[in-house]
Write a structure and sequence with these properties.
Layout (H helix, E strand, L loop, with lengths): L1 E5 L3 H13 L3 E6 L2 H11 L3 E5 L7 H11 L5 E5 L3 H4 L6 E4 L4 H22 L1
Parallel strand pairs: 1-2, 1-3, 3-4, 4-5
């Protein structure tokens, strides 16, 4: 899977990139704001976006809604320490709690990858 990561804390973004690589998926870009996430989404067309909800310049919720308006099929996963109930109705397909567990991330990405393969096979 091609993964875009958006987190305004550079250490968190780089750690997520290492976890995605350890889960044998490909990081297309790590960005530090919601606005950058929107631009990078258009440029790289990732299979999934791992997005922090609480970013300073443009938060993940706003960026998520914008991306989904442009591409209703976008797969956005919030990565946040906020309670999942606060994030439930924004449009993300999943929510991962910080700190992210490698096994949980790997299982989520593998399941999403399997679903993409299944959807592609059905469309043919």
């Amino acid at each position: 899977m091609r993964v875009l990561i958006a987190d305004d804390q550079p250490s968190v973004g780089s750690t997520l990139a290492l976890l995605v690589s350890a889960a044998k998926h490909h990081v297309v870009k790590v960005v530090s704001s919601g606005a950058e996430a929107i631009r990078a989404y258009h440029t790289y067309k990732p299979d999934v976006v791992l997005m922090d909800y609480s970013m300073a310049r443009l938060n993940g919720g706003t960026a998520c809604r914008y991306i989904l308006t442009e591409d209703p099929g976008a797969r956005i996963v919030f990565v946040s320490s906020r309670p999942a109930t606060e994030l439930a109705d924004i449009g993300a397909v999943a929510i991962l709690s910080k700190p992210v567990d490698l096994n949980e991330l790997e299982e989520l990405l593998n399941n999403m990858d399997a679903q993409l393969v299944f959807d592609y096979a059905r469309a043919r």
